[in-house]
Design goal:
two-stranded antiparallel ribbon; single chain; mainly alpha
């Protein structure tokens, strides 16, 4: 039979017992470790790692869909020769615009998971009661989704670069063609990941319910893009109304790709508006930064 705990103090109104609890004497890892841990766990959470099997379906299926165009593009280039390579619709120049819908759905699926669950289950108090600050929480979540989306986009583009190198008869010529594309790929992918992730996370931060947040994110990317495109193309807007084209998320992505790689894109909003593609690229960068600021302000004021 277990021994009762030692009585430390007692009175007519109550008693205090020594239950044997001890204080923590180990190392205090501090704020930096808390941020790194939250970032790492959020990055794993984005891909469903550490969660059930159903949680892995959406991120890995969408990652596979973003990879598929690159595989098709490399196959066309390898089997069709130089003539087919020139007509190949999937190149590093057009890759981001080809998979833009998959990017939107990836953010739609994962942004509400990263933020909404903590609000719905009222666990933010536990985060903010220790070394982690509110700004740290926002930065870690933002960084996790941007990193996850950047990984999803980098891998297919790496395959496209390898396809350019190995499809060339001369390895040196292939490297000479591929290496100048590295910087545009890196820059455009980071900006695109930050732009899409930032918009999705801001919406998810203000709408904790997963279904409602997902619907709002889809509407922002797909519906808003369609509405703006109709206004620009059918309305034939003039100054200053033609700048409504900057509200089209896909037009911003197309302008970013045109600016980084050069050449002509396929987005009619950019073409019909008559606005310099560099303006669309600059707006994508501004939205990425502003969304992070809004996310930080939201979590500084949110009730935990």
């Amino acid at each position: 039979m277990a021994q009762p705990p030692d009585l430390v103090a007692g009175s007519a109104t109550g008693s205090i017992f020594d239950l044997g609890y001890q204080g923590y004497d180990g190392p205090r890892l501090g704020r930096r470790h808390a941020i790194a841990t939250l970032f790492t766990q959020s990055l794993k959470w984005t891909f469903g790692i550490g969660r059930g099997g159903r949680a892995k379906i959406a991120p890995f299926a969408l990652a596979a869909l973003t990879l598929l165009p690159a595989v098709i593009g490399v196959g066309i280039q390898a089997l069709g020769g130089a003539a087919a390579a020139k007509a190949n619709p999937v190149t590093p120049h057009q890759y981001l615009t080809v998979v833009q819908t998959f990017i939107a759905f990836f953010v739609t699926a994962q942004a509400p998971e990263l933020l909404g669950r903590d609000q719905r289950h009222h666990v933010l108090t536990l985060y903010f009661s220790r070394a982690l600050e509110r700004t740290d929480y926002a930065l870690a979540k933002y960084g996790a989704l941007v990193s996850a989306l950047a990984i999803v986009l980098f891998v297919p583009q790496l395959i496209l670069l390898l396809g350019i190198v190995f499809a060339s008869i001369d390895l040196g010529a292939g490297l000479g063609e591929a290496l100048p594309l590295v910087w545009p790929i890196v820059a455009s992918t980071i900006v695109a990941a930050a732009f899409f992730s930032g918009v999705g996370l801001v919406i998810a931060a203000f709408i904790p319910r997963r279904a409602f947040a997902a619907g709002a994110i889809v509407a922002t990317f797909l519906v808003l893009s369609g509405v703006v495109q109709v206004l620009v193309v059918q309305g034939r807007l003039r100054d200053p109304f033609r700048y409504v084209a900057l509200l089209d998320p896909y037009a911003l992505l197309d302008g970013l790709a045109r600016t980084m790689f050069g050449g002509v894109g396929g987005n009619v909003t950019v073409t019909r508006s008559g606005i310099d593609p560099a303006v669309f690229a600059a707006c994508a960068c501004v939205v990425a930064v502003v969304s992070l600021v809004v996310l930080i302000v939201r979590y500084r004021r949110i009730e935990a």
